[in-house]
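Example 161, ligand magnesium ion.
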Amino acid sequence: MQLRIGNGYDIHRLVPGRALILGGERLQHPEGLGLDGHSDADVLVHALMDALLGALSLGDIGLHFPPDDERWRGADSLVLLEQVAALVRREGWQVVNVDSVVVAERPKLKPHVPAMRAAIATRLGVAPEQVGVKATTNEQLGPTGREEGIACHAVALLMQP
Ligand code: MG
């Protein structure tokens, strides 16, 4: 059996007038802020896709879904995740597990974590137990601490039987 590990990171700006979508869930920020980006700016799903692609040295989401391509304007990142999962399968690999940590001061993510895990697991074709989603604040330090953005770190482990 062969194993591969990949890591991913992403950050998007918090701005007024945008939706706040994390792990496919639409959340409500207390100041009405959302994440800016070409797609739906789902930073959690973006970090996961980069971890999956990184595990197989297949580049990054910028390569597969270029931000200057109009096809991906406002794209549902879960649909892109499904495409990355299909690519992983085509290459002959299976997802062992993925794990992630979202760095956000607000809103509280914990109540939404089960729904995020379920949505991600469905698109990956794995069980929710194989999908880790954790949340932390940055203790008001740095850009995420000042709520200038929300960031996410992710890892993916793949196996080839
Ligand atoms: Mg991104």
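Summary: The chain has a mean pLDDT of 97.
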